[in-house]
Amino acid sequence: MMEQKLQVFLLVAISQTWVAVYSNNQDFLGLKSLDWKNKPPNWVGADPCEANWDGIDCSDNRVTSITLSSMGLEGQLSGDIEQLSELQTLDLSYNKKLTGPLPQSIGNLQKLNNLILVGCAFSGQIPGTIGSLKELVFISLNSNRFTGLIPPSIGNLSKLYWLDLADNQIEGTIPVSRGNTPGLDMLLHCKHFHFGKNKLEGSIPETLFSSNMTLIHVLFDSNQLTGSIPLSLGLVKSLEVVRLDGNELSDDVPTNLNDLTNVTELILSDNKLSGPLPNLTGMNGLHFLDLSNNSFDTSDFPSWISTLQSLTTLIMEDTNLQGPIPVDLFSLPNLETVVLRKNKLNGTLDIGTSYSSHLNLVDLKNNQITKFANSDEVQGIDIILLDNLICLETTETKANYCSNSVSHSSNSSYVTPEKNNCIRTPCSSDKISSPNCLCAYPYTGTLNFRAPSFSDLENETYYQILENSLTSFFEKFKVKVDSIALSNPNEVSSEYLNIKLEIFPSGHDSFDRKEISDMGFALSNQTYKTPKTFGPFFFIADQYESYADSIEVPSDSNKSSKTSISIIIGGVVGGLAVVVLLLLAGLYAFHQKKRAEKATELSRPFGSWDTNSSSGAVPQLKGARWFSFEELKKYTNNFSAANDVGSGGYGKVYRGTLPTGELVAIKRSLKESMQGGVEFKTEIELLSRVHHKNLVTLVGFCFEQGEQILVYEYIPNGSLKDSLTGKSGIRLDWMKRLRVALGTARGLSYLHELANPTIIHRDIKSTNVLLDDRLNAKVADFGLSKLMMKDGDKDHVTTQVKGTMGYLDPEYYMTQQLTEKSDVYSFGVLMLELITAKKPIERGKYVVREIRLAMDKTKDLYNLHSFIDSTMGLGTRLIGFDKYVDLALECVGDSGVDRPTMSDVVKEIEAIMKLAGLNPNADSEPTSASYEYSSKMSSSNPYGEDAFDHSGTFPPSKIEPL
User: Fold this and answer.
1) Distance from the Cα of residue 870 to its chain's centroid
2) How far apart are CA 315 and CA 194, in angstroms?
3) Which contiguous run of DSSP H or E holds residue 683?
4) What is the mean pLDDT of residues 191-208?
5) 84-116, pLDDT tens digit by residue?
6) Does the fold of domain 720-958 match that of domain 432-541?
7) Integer-rounded Cα radius of gyration of the chain
């Protein structure tokens, strides 16, 4: 019985040991994949938890946290980070040389609740897979170089509290939910919407806000938003800060903003708002109000402003104010700043005798003030009346308030003073003297306040409150801090307040890596809460290089106890060691055998190619990479449904992420695909030998375990058909359609005239033209393509007719003689599809014939108004439209010899673009420039539907007479 219990004990111990070893090895591999420069020097060994790697926290021998802010890391974020399956916090903030895109596989970190990457240099589209991280509470991706669109999938994050995407280059519209597509309106528990300093466009959707939301900060400043301020904004009663300035918003300000009684900062400046000035009497907690540079109706100075007892700052420059300024405005108890430039204010300026003791600036430049009632009594206030009628009088022109020398600085010279009457002395090396007059290497950076409730930068009381708050916070923090220093407060053009922060170490002259990481995390994840006067903030740290030696040496007093414990542990572990070693030896041998088999397979990747099957001879490749099936399973999360981006007659396409972070489209054929072998071989051979910016790039392939898989570059904006039908949410105007036509033509011209040997695509259609992130056209799907092995005068090939109904060259169908002009015909049909957004054959009508019958060259737009796609922009001139239609009809000429070559087509489209004022050789604009995006994009499918639907041989009855 005892023997059986011992066996059970040993088995349990071995299994637990093996699980721990495996899990820890998985985390080790995930961390090692982060191939960064300047990683902490103690990242050595194979057990990051046992060795206490800097920046790594563990629980139950699994990595749960990576906090490596301000480490000077360089490199990219590997897709293999998904192996850290227990990770809850990822903070890489303030590493300004971390670049590249976020890998799609980040969506596999299902326990992640903090994703904090502030102040790095990450770029590209924020992956939509982020929406699968249901535990996320914090998303801080501000101050990077992200482009593309806001992923609608973020709306699935029901626990999200903080969403900060500010200070990037994010484009497109604000996604809201439609049908089964999520949107930001679903984030009912989110407190912070920080989207300032991006390139967002379109209107702010009315459905974005609701009374069920708990938002306190809504920051959409410095974007390209148009339309009205949504009425629904007034339903979010929890709001405290609203910034919509620096956009192109128009129409009236909703009257129900008056219901937002908790708002302390309201900034609507630099828009195109019109109608009457809003009445904000109900905003009795308002501190900061800026309505400047809008187009409001001319009105007298509003009396309700004088009732806002909390107001510190009033800025209403160029708002069509007229009449006198009421004297009671200046008696508001907290008033600091009044800026009313470029209005039509007149009469007498009377500050009164009971004006606010905090008042420091009254700027009325460029008005019609005729008199200053109490100029001799007002002390300590900058009054600016330059360019008013009063300053035209000879007796007043020399007064201070009429002088150009009177100006109010947006900077302050404040520096935290010395403590305890100490005297600062010069420090050696690069050390800095602290407020306690100790020389050390401080942790430094800039505090950026997005909406402070004050404007008097000379008031030192504010900075002392902030210093006391920071000092108190770090006293309770684990890091030993000697003192806090603030300096150089300044207000940038966007009304952000920047203050330099220095944190000095206590007990030594520099911080170690753990202390730097802890302080960075405290500031990046908002653990530190600023005084409410300063409002929402973010911190950008400087790189810290003078790390202290953080290695700990155990003291002698602990040695004996540790030795006795070691003897006990050693007795248990030693008994297991032999069994574990035997098990590991067996696994090692098995692993080595697999490696040998893999190496052999790699050395002859076509060893399994069946030359006797319909697949034909072994493919002749140039540069395409071979992938194992196991690799592709890993890159697609085992071909999961979440990674499925489309399907068709050939098979399915999955989005995958390579270890480098590169996105790929992985096209997996169906087992029962009858023509898959031939088409698979054709596409490998052709794509491996062609390289052009308007052709989809083949990354690699796989044909093991009975699989036939092609790996392409990932094209994010779907097919041309998706855009023309509205499925992708992308709106293509006339100029964009010309660029798409030119890109497609250039790709085909390369195949016909520069590829060696010549290649005929045979299946040009809107589903086989994909659009990248800049809407450049890329020709895809070479499964039906044909090599033209020219021999003397032979300039065609006799072959079985294949193609797609509606695009198929009738001459090719009738003669079975395939030439480059067959592609030209298909391209002509595509040109007509581009301007009509109609299928080539729709309800029994063929677009080529219908346009020929309807067109009248004597009339405007050739009398084709009813055919033109309404989303193309009929409100603007379609310059070159007639020449475009003429070219399209030449391409679909009945006889191939009468059709132009693709190089001729390229030249004609270039000429049309020049006529329309476009540079045909310039890069396409970023996708935000001229298209709209809706939440439908999440269902867009670059490789789906009939992308693989090759119709094969058509019976005559299927071809409509021409």
Assistant:
1) 30
2) 23
3) helix 676-689
4) 96
5) 999 999 999 999 999 999 998 899 999 999 999
6) no
7) 34
Per-position DSSP letters for 560-611, written without gaps between them: HHHHHHHHHHHHHHHHHHHHHHHHHHHHHHHHHHHHHHHHHHHHSTTTT--T
Which stretch, 506-510, 724-728, 821-825, has highest mean pLDDT?
821-825
Question: What pLDDT sits at residue 556?
Answer: 39
Q: Where are the domains of the chain?
A: 432-541, 625-713, 720-958
Please count the residues of the chain. Answer: 962
Does the pTM of the predicted model rise above 0.70? no
The 3-state DSSP class for residue 363 equals: strand
Mention every residue, 6+ apart, whose C-beta is less than 8 A from residue 329: 301, 305, 306, 314, 335, 338
How far does Cα 21 stand from its chain's mean position? 37
Give me the percent of the chain exceeding a pLDDT of 70: 80
For residue 649, the model assigns a pLDDT of: 59
Phi-psi group of 905: left, alpha or beta (phi > 0 → left; psi -120 to 50 → alpha; rest → beta): alpha
Angle between helices 902-915 and 881-891 (to 10 degrees): 170
In this prediction, residue 612 carries a pLDDT of 44
Q: Report the C-alpha gap between 805 and 954 in whole angstroms.
A: 8
Nearest CA to 149 among 192, 200, 112? 200
C-alpha to C-alpha distances, 882 to 594, 624, 683, 824, 892, nearest whole angstrom: 65, 43, 37, 19, 16
Q: What does the alpha-carbon distance between residue 755 and residue 691 come to, in Å, rounded to a whole number?
A: 9
Locus of tokens 């403590």: 419
Contact between 181 and 152 (Cβ < 8 Å)? yes
At 339, list the tokens: 């800026």
Phi-psi region of 203 (alpha: psi -120 to 50; beta: other; left: phi over 0): beta
Query: What are the residue ranges of helices labelled H in 754-901?
Result: 810-815, 820-836, 847-854, 881-891
Is 763 one of the catalytic residues? Answer: yes
Q: pLDDT, tens digit, for every residue of 233-247?
A: 999 999 999 999 999
Q: Could you tell me the two tokens for 884?
A: 């475009």
pLDDT of residue 623: 55
DSSP 696-734: PPEEEEE--TT--EEEEE--TT-BHHHHHHTSS-PPP-H
- Distance between CA 478 and CA 466 in Å, rounded? 20
Q: What is the pLDDT of residues 511-554, one digit of tens each?
A: 998 899 889 999 998 888 888 889 899 999 998 877 765 434 33
From 402, 336, 407, 393, select the one nearest 375 (Cα to Cα).
402
Active-site residue, from 185, 763, 773, 823: 763
Statement: residue 923 has pLDDT above 90: no
Class of 720-958 per CATH? Answer: mainly alpha
Question: In angstroms, rounded to a whole number, what is the distance separating the alpha carbons of residues 24 and 841?
Answer: 60
Q: Is 328 helix (H, G, I), strand (E, B) or coil?
A: helix
Does the domain formed by 432-541 have CATH 3.30.70?
yes
> In a 10 Å sphere around its CB, with 0-12 CB exposed, 13-18 middle and 19+ buried, how is residue 729 labelled?
buried
Q: What is the pLDDT of residues 671-690, one digit of tens each?
A: 665 455 666 676 677 777 77
- In sequence order, the 6+-apart residues with CB closer than 8 A to the CB of 461 are none
Q: Is the pLDDT of residue 878 over 50?
A: yes
To the question of domain 625-713 being in CATH 3.40.220.10, the answer is no
